[in-house]
């Protein structure tokens, strides 16, 4: 009996659902975005956030952000004890406005990226990352 | 100076004028979040790298403000333009006041 | 129904029996070198046809971490070992490099360990290291799974990376191998389980949120995301036994050494991946 990786993950998602940490009392994603933009609208275009759907371990979650033309990108984790993760400020020497790093997530939550563009406008993207816990691997 | 803190960077040795290159950086650092408790129940104080900068021939490439949510042994990958031969300077700032720096030269291809 | 073990309940959640691998489509390459992560099982394995490296059971993101030596978090520790290699320690005033020109002289060693020496004893790399330290350097021995030991094992293991695991199981090794095999299939602990219950009967299945591997050790010491450091073979054996609520054998014991020989032989044919990245 052979399962494709997709099916394995679907099954594992179901099993993992039994052991997911609950959505923490987290600040709401729109509120956190507004906190960065000062209440201004953030477009959904012009920024991409790459993060795993299921993080194999919450202490090292690889993420990437990309917002061509951005002056800065702020990354937030809505369900962490404090939401701030990092702020990338791009200088004249940057070859592009993208960055990759590894972050800590305390549980399943939204990871949010807010880009501030050169003209003062904002763009944002967010994605739910599932953080599983509990398995015989200890 | 925190113990055992060592930077590593990956920069191509050469590039053509105007090229965009990928840079990877890492620094070994515990990134103590300030949320852990020791055996006696006392909070272990926060002690992290709170800022990372990269500059080329004095021009800022990237300047990162970092929070405890950055993983242990902070890792960054980003891109820089190389208008001419020169030197990259990488700097990490520790909560305890230490500053770690490493430089890498790049030649024209 | 008397529940003698919680594990069948966990397995039934997954409701899958059989062979599943996460990354069966993926190929492990590092700097262009292709690694054997799945191959025909060695002849001595009766219940398994194909063997898979632990790499194939991990998510795409975890697999990617191992495919670049800069991205691989193990190398922070390998770097520490490189420094340690040159550091003078002990009453004889020597460093490893005083006798061994560089770590490269150990090319091929890890691929064939553990092995039986000329005195008829089963020896492992930590024992070789501590033998040098105590007898030739006049230095203190390192604990089996200490940071220094695991970093040095990572450096030495790296010199065999890409080579096929090839441990001898016949001749003088046979009695140790048979003992290791017996331990592998012996149920122990409060949960009354053997290594084979998970790693032979249920690899590919989920046990709660964990994707079970075949329990191969071709990548050890391995950097685990779980504790952000290198983990040794005996350290993992001990952890596994604690997970099933058994009293673990001691690291460096004859039991764990025999088990290490047997488990290593289950990977004969896979590439050494040390230092690998796992969950």
Provide a concise account of the structure shown.
The complex is a heterotrimer of chains A (138), B (109) and C (279). Chain B is an all-beta fold and 109 residues long. Chain B contains no helices and eight strands.
What does this structure look like?
The complex is a heterotrimer of chains A (138), B (109) and C (279). Helix content of chain A is 16%, strand content 41%. Chain A is of the alpha+beta class and 138 residues long. The longest helix of chain A is centred in the N-terminal third of the chain and has 13 residues, at 5-17. Chain A is globular and about 50 Å long. Chain B has 109 residues and is mainly beta. Chain B has a 5-stranded mixed β-sheet with strand order 2-8-7-4-5, with no helix packed on it. The model of chain B has no long low-confidence stretch (mean pLDDT 95). By secondary structure, chain C is of the alpha+beta class. In chain C, the strands form 5 sheets. In chain C, strands 10-9-11 form a 3-stranded mixed β-sheet. A two-stranded antiparallel ribbon of chain C has the order 1-2. The radius of gyration of chain C is 19 Å and the shape is globular. The model of chain C is unreliable at 1-22 (pLDDT under 50). Chain A binds chain C through residues 1-3, 5, 8-9, 11-12, 14-16, 18-20, 52, 54-57, 59-62, 132-138, and chain C through 7, 10, 13-25, 58-62, 64-65, 73, 198, 204, 206-212, 225-226, 228, 239-240, 242-244, 279.
């Amino acid at each position: 009996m052979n399962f494709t990786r997709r099916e394995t993950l679907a099954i594992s998602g179901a099993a993992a659902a039994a052991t997911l940490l609950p959505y923490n009392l987290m600040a709401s994603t729109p509120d956190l975005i507004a906190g960065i933009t000062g209440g201004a609208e953030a477009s959904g275009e012009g920024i991409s956030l790459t993060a795993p759907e299921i993080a194999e371990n919450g202490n090292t979650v690889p993420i990437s952000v990309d917002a061509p033309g951005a002056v800065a990108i702020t990354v937030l984790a809505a369900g962490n004890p404090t939401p701030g993760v990092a702020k990338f400020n791009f200088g004249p020497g940057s070859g592009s406005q993208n960055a990759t790093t590894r972050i800590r997530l305390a549980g399943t939550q939204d990871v949010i990226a807010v880009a501030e563009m050169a003209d003062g406008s904002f763009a944002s993207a967010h994605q739910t990352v599932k953080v599983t816990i509990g398995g015989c691997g200890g | 100076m925190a113990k055992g803190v060592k930077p590593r960077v990956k920069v191509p040795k050469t590039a053509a004028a105007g090229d965009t290159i990928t840079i990877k950086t890492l620094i070994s650092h515990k990134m103590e979040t300030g949320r852990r408790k020791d055996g006696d129940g006392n909070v272990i104080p926060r002690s992290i790298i709170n800022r990372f900068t990269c500059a080329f021939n004095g021009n800022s490439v990237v300047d990162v403000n970092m929070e405890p949510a950055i993983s242990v042994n902070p890792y960054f990958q980003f891109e820089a333009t190389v208008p001419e031969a020169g030197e990259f300077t990488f700097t990490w700032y520790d909560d305890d006041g230490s500053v770690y720096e490493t430089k890498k030269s790049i030649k024209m291809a | 129904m008397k529940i003698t073990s919680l594990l069948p309940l966990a397995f039934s959640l997954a409701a899958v029996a059989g062979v599943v691998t996460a990354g069966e489509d993926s190929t492990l390459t590092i700097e262009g070198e292709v690694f054997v992560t799945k191959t025909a099982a060695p002849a001595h394995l009766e219940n398994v046809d194909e063997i898979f490296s632990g790499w194939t059971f991990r998510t795409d993101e975890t697999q990617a971490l191992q495919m670049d030596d800069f991205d691989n978090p193990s190398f922070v520790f390998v770097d520490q070992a490189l420094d340690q290699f040159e550091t003078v320690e002990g009453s004889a005033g020597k460093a490893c490099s005083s006798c061994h020109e560089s770590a490269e002289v150990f090319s091929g060693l890890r691929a064939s360990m553990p092995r039986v020496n000329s005195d008829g004893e089963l020896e492992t790399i930590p024992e070789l290291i501590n033998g040098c330290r105590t007898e030739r350097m006049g230095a203190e021995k390192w604990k089996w799974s200490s940071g220094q030991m695991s970093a040095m094992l990572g450096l030495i293991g790296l010199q065999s990376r890409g080579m096929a695991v090839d441990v001898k199981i016949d001749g003088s090794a046979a009695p140790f191998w048979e003992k290791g095999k017996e331990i592998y299939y012996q149920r122990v602990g409060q949960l009354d389980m053997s290594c084979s219950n998970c790693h032979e009967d249920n690899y590919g299945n989920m046990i709660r949120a964990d994707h079970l591997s075949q329990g191969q050790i071709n990548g050890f010491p391995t950097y685990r995301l779980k504790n952000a450091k290198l983990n040794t073979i005996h350290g993992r054996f001990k952890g596994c036994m604690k997970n099933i609520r058994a009293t673990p054998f001691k690291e460096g014991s004859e039991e764990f050494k025999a088990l290490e020989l047997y488990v290593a032989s289950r990977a004969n044919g896979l590439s050494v991946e040390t230092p690998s990245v796992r969950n």
